[in-house]
Automatic annotation (TrEMBL):
This is NAD(P)-binding domain-containing protein. It comes from Penicillium vulpinum. Coiled coil: none annotated. Belongs to the avfA family. InterPro entries: NAD(P)-bd_dom_sf (IPR036291), Polyketide_Oxido-like (IPR051606). It comes from the Eukaryota. Gene3D superfamilies: NAD(P)-binding Rossmann-like Domain. GO terms for molecular function: oxidoreductase activity, acting on the CH-NH group of donors, NAD or NADP as acceptor.
């Protein structure tokens, strides 16, 4: 193990941040969780403390970075998803405020930002979020197991309407693609299935719905070109799954407009393994000024 580090995690209780905190603590590092309402204590053993701070308070946020004596900072910030119409603007503002706070602070260690798969490039030079019919076409290509995961996650987070929407989407796709033995029954319900898919397409290609993905791309462009700070930008693969399994196995793919990280578009990783990749980067700092993704074994668990 490397020497014990002091690491700040922005967004410690979120889907991604909580796994990063777990992984850091399990390796004997000390962690400071920073967000509006960070947990005061951590359920797993290790040195953990929380500092409440809203990233819109740029000065306060910057002081926390300057005074924290951190060896590294990981941003797992994500805008709240309660009002889809505001996700993009709140996300862009949040990422911008975090950048300003880091630049104003005296912190000079590695800063790792978690963004979104939509920023990854295809080999034909287009970013996933700019592909035709994004995100409908790409949801349509997801395996059932990932749609099951997505609906379970939405119900877990109290987003019942989204959970039901995903189940309906999966049913409508199956009605069209795999009518099976009861094809006469599927045929009867086909008009309803087609209506569901048409309305899903309208929703999933609406810029409000994909605000999180688009604001993550803006966050990437905010950091690209910055040379006087040590930053690294991770776009998780398209099929990121939480409450998974920590296998400790992953592959890093460094992104460029030639599509060297296209595997991140087609594949996935468990959050627990993505946290292993992030903490390896915290310890080894090999991906400075790079945009990267990581993929790992999935399909080891059903939802
Ligand atoms: N496949 C993919 O590409 C994929 C999938 C999932 C997530 N992601 C990305 O991963 C990142 C994290 O997502 P997540 O799902 O882990 O998010 P999440 O579960 O919603 O957690 C977001 C965190 O941000 C904190 N936060 C929100 N507003 C804040 C503010 N104003 N000031 C300070 N902290 C604030 C929250 O804590 P408080 O509420 O205490 O403030 C929370 O801990 C995002 O960039 C997201 O796009 C990508």
């Amino acid at each position: 193990m490397s020497k014990s580090l002091r690491v700040a995690v922005l967004g410690p209780k979120g889907q991604c941040g909580s796994c990063v905190v777990d992984e850091l603590l399990s390796r004997g590092h000390s962690v400071v969780g920073i967000s509006r309402t960070p947990p005061k204590t951590w359920p797993k053993s290790g040195e953990y403390g929380g500092i409440p701070c809203d990233c819109s308070d740029i000065k306060g946020f910057s002081n926390v970075q300057s005074d924290g004596d951190f060896d590294a900072v990981v941003s797992a910030f994500g805008p709240p998803l309660v009002d889809l119409k505001s996700v993009y603007s709140v996300g862009v503002e949040g990422h911008g405020n975090i950048k300003m706070a880091i630049l104003k602070s005296t912190f000079r260690g590695p800063f790792i930002i978690i963004g979104g798969a939509g920023s990854l490039f295809y080999k034909h030079g287009v970013q996933l979020c700019d592909d035709e019919d994004f995100a409908f076409k790409h949801w349509y290509a997801w395996p059932n197991v990932h749609l099951n995961y997505m609906s379970t996650r939405m119900f877990d987070h109290g987003q019942q309407a989204l959970g039901r929407f995903i189940r309906l989407f999966k049913w409508a796709r199956a009605n069209r693609e795999n009518p099976g033995w009861f094809s006469w029954l599927s045929w009867l319900s086909r008009p309803f299935a087609n209506w569901c898919l048409r309305s899903s397409k309208k929703n999933l290609t609406n810029p409000d719905t994909i605000g999180l993905i688009l604001c993550s791309r803006v966050a990437l462009t905010m950091w690209e070109g910055v040379k006087d700070r040590n930053w690294s930008f991770l776009s998780p693969p398209w099929q990121l799954r939480d409450k998974g399994i920590r296998t400790g196995k992953y592959e890093v793919h460094v992104d460029d407009s030639a599509g060297s990280a296209e595997q991140g578009i087609d594949n996935g990783i468990y959050n627990e393994d993505m946290a292993v990749a992030i903490v390896d980067e915290v310890e080894n700092n090999k991906l400075n000024h790079k945009h990267w993704t990581c993929t790992g074994p999935i399909g080891l668990k059903e939802w």
